Amino acid sequence: MKYHQIDRDLFIKNRSKFMAQMKPKSVAIFNSNDIYPISADSTMPFAQHRDIFYLSGVDQEESILLLFPDAPYEHQREMLFLKETNDHIAVWEGEKLTKERALAVSGIKTVYWLQEFEKVLFELMTHSDTIYINTNEHYRATVETETREARFVKWWKEKYPAHTVAKSNPILQRIRSIKESEEIDLIQQACNITEKGFRRVLSFVKPNIMEYEIEAEFIHEFVRNRSKGFAYTPIIGSGNNANVLHYIENNQQCKAGDLILIDAGAEYANYSSDMTRTIPVSGKYNDRQKAVYNAVLRVKNEATKMLLPGTLWKQYHIEVGKLMTSELLGLGLIDKADVQNENPDWPAYKKYFMHGTSHHMGLDTHDYGILTEPMQANMVFTVEPGIYIPAEGFGIRLEDDVVIQESGEPFNLMRNIPIEVDEIESLMNS
Ligand SMILES: [Mn+2]
Question: Residue ranges of the Aminopeptidase P N-terminal domain (predicted)?
Fold first, then answer.
């Protein structure tokens, strides 16, 4: 791990929040992710399942966390099962958590090697009635592979058919969406690394560079600041590529006079940041580009003010739609008739702004959070309006990450990342 060790008090708090929601005589089990194969003996880099990480800080494969708040003995309330290591194994496989390190990282005293899991579980099952299993209920999830968690659930249901099943996911969706101060600090660190990358890019961009050269500048800056890399696949789209919402090829040349839409963020300690900026290849926006840019910026700033405790996600999007409609009228992109005749299910503004404005952000870039429930303090959201105009050869999106406050405007974690036209132009020309 490149990141500094996280204070284990965070994971202790997270577990106690989860356990407070569990039914009497119940056990909850969380599995790590697999290391996914490519072919031959090559694998994808390991990425930990965010739930076991959130609850334990354990950041390695073949790990199981078990919680049993009503266990007959204290040492059975929280347990970890880890891949066995010793000095000899460490020579071949690299450093893995010892039982002592696992305690230091997680605050969990009872640590077994993985091969003891079935035996220990059997005893605990005789004392419990319900098991919480962890299914993926994220609103944007599409999972085609069988995860380690899914394999476990299959095995467990076969083995213990008389137990009642309960769902971990709704509990996690709620507790993970409200961030502890340690988490906000980690997300801030991820945003700060993104800022360094963006400033490096501002002094690097000039006509005729390739989009992937910009990607390379980011990754250089990210890794040298203890990030594993991008929190998500970056979008670096010049000219009309900005109008392909999920453009990730990043293989075209940036032409003088065009804009480049950059949607890129560093991860730090498994926490994401999610930033979008749109900059001019030649270091200067033309009048039309500037007018559209400032319209997007106004929508972003006004939308941000609506992220308050009690706001409903759906209502918020309706209000942002009204702001965007008025900006598009001002830019002459739509007219009054378009608005009067609009389909309420697909309002006129959607022609130029067809995606959502905000999503939860945290351990996952599109983080957990139940969107039908009112917003609460210490939730972290992105704010990312855009205007996409293929007919004019450019698209603009601006995106910051903000924390909802108990009262007043949200706190902008990207407040130091240049966004005003003048500041971007002056940094690109200095
Ligand atoms: Mn985003």
Answer: 6-142
